[in-house]
């Protein structure tokens, strides 16, 4: 009896390090949520999932171990919609367990898509989520079909190209570039860790226009203002001794599709490191903004972006790394990750504006996103008049988010806060 050969995919260059660093609360799972203005219909959502995955065959994969690298193998397993009854960003990959690398759940008015980072980055996952929500709302409200929906279905096809490999240019020391992305003296967030290795989430929703106006007041962008405000909130929780000894270092993922033409739904991002010395802070947010802006301009130059992109691709092209057995690669990557996280305070990722067809917008309240990291991450998403800040951390207290929301309130911006904890207190 003959059997068809399953299709397999090499992991993209950013994803190659992810399975090795999946530990504890750092499940390397991110969650994208769509809050609707009506209750979710589970049966219709399942039908929408079944329709949507046909356009994204690459996502129907399982992670497998090879001798030298991990790889993805196609799977016929069906993604079954379930009620949201697991801890947020619960592990999707467990060694030796064959399972899909994404899950779709619902609760009340909310649709959740969780995805393992080896499969895609946030930008790629949002393509999937937008299509899923579009299909769901069209099934639920047939009269709201966008005029160009048929064209959308014909042209917006999933692209599984490894963009890192496509744009990689040999030359320079990419591995050295990776090592230089850490600073040993970064301030680390403190607090009690969850004993069950679960992530604690806080979602803050604000008015988009008010935040944009605040950015304009400081003659800066939403992304720079967000990083600066979080740095200011972190400084509030530091002792005078800590302020004099350690920098606040924020990792900021950069969507490389803005610099290299690519429609890939896989990982295609770089990371820049924004450091600020708290002993320079005099209470003026503008000082932090100026420092962050200068770091953005320097690290987002054409030359630095090329180096950042090539640093990820260099891992695969390094001869010594190529011939190293996977078990040794895992140990090496884990060691590198342990050192790197010592030089990082937290991560701030801005997903930008989420676009949806005008005909469907009345049914949607907002989008939000959460990502697990070794320390803590804030993920920003904007849909029309609502901007959300999604905080994820293994720390059970929320001092930074409370301080951040106070900073907004002091500047005339109210926040609506939700959390997966029983309560949220200012520590």
How is this structure best described in words?
The structure is a single chain. The protein has about 425 residues and is α+β, with helices and mostly antiparallel strands. The protein has two domains: about 160 residues, 2-Layer Sandwich (Chloramphenicol Acetyltransferase); about 250 residues, Nonribosomal peptide synthetase, condensation domain (Chloramphenicol Acetyltransferase, 2-Layer Sandwich), CATH 3.30.559.30. Helix content is about 35%, strand content about 20%. The chain is built from 13 helices and 15 strands. The strands form three sheets. The protein has a seven-stranded mixed sheet with strand order 10-9-11-13-14-8-15. It has a five-stranded mixed sheet with strand order 5-6-7-2-12, covered by helices on one side. Strands 1-4-3 form a three-stranded antiparallel sheet, with no helix packed on it. Helix 1 packs across helix 2 and helix 7 crosses helix 13. The protein is globular, with a radius of gyration of 21 Å. It starts with 7 loop residues before the first strand and ends in an 8-residue tail after the last strand. The C terminus is likely disordered.
């Amino acid at each position: 009896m003959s059997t068809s050969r399953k299709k397999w995919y090499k992991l993209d260059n950013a994803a190659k390090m992810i399975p090795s660093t999946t530990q504890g609360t750092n499940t390397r799972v991110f969650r994208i949520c769509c809050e609707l203005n009506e209750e979710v219909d589970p049966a219709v959502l399942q039908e929408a999932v079944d329709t949507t995955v046909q356009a994204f065959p690459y996502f129907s994969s399982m992670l497998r171990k090879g001798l030298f690298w991990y790889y993805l193998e196609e799977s016929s397993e069906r993604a079954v919609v379930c009620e949201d009854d697991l801890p947020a960003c619960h592990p999707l990959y467990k060694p030796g367990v064959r399972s899909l690398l994404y899950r779709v759940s619902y609760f009340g008015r909310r649709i959740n898509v969780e995805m393992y980072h080896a499969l895609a980055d946030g930008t790629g996952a949002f393509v999937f989520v937008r299509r899923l929500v579009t299909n769901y709302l069209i099934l639920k409200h047939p009269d709201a079909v966008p005029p160009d929906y048929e064209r959308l279905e014909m042209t917006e096809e999933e692209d599984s190209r490894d963009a890192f490999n496509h744009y990689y240019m040999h030359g320079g020391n990419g591995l050295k570039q990776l090592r230089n992305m850490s600073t040993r003296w970064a301030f680390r967030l403190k607090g009690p860790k969850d004993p069950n290795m679960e992530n604690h989430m806080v979602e803050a929703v604000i008015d988009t226009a008010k935040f944009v106006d605040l950015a304009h007041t400081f003659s800066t962008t939403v992304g720079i203002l967000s990083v600066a405000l979080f740095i200011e909130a972190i400084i509030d929780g530091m002792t005078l001794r800590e302020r004099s000894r350690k920098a606040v270092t924020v990792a900021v993922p950069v969507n490389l599709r803005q610099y290299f033409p690519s429609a890939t739904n896989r990982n295609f991002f770089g990371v820049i490191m924004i450091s600020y010395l708290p002993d320079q802070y005099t209470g003026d947010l503008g000082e932090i903004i100026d420092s962050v802006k200068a770091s953005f301009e320097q690290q987002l130059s054409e030359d630095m972006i090329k180096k950042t992109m090539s640093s990820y691709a260099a891992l695969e092209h390094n001869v010594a790394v190529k011939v190293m057995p996977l078990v040794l690669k895992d140990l090496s990557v884990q060691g590198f990750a342990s050192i790197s996280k010592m030089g990082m305070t937290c991560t701030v990722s801005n997903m930008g504006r989420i676009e949806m067809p005008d005909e469907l917008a009345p049914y949607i309240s907002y989008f939000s996103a959460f990502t697990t990291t070794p320390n803590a991450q804030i993920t920003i998403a904007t849909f029309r008049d609502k901007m959300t800040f999604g905080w994820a951390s293994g720390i059970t207290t929320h001092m930074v988010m409370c301080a951040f929301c106070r900073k907004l309130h002091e500047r005339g911006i109210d926040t609506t806060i939700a959390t997966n904890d029983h309560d949220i207190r200012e520590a």
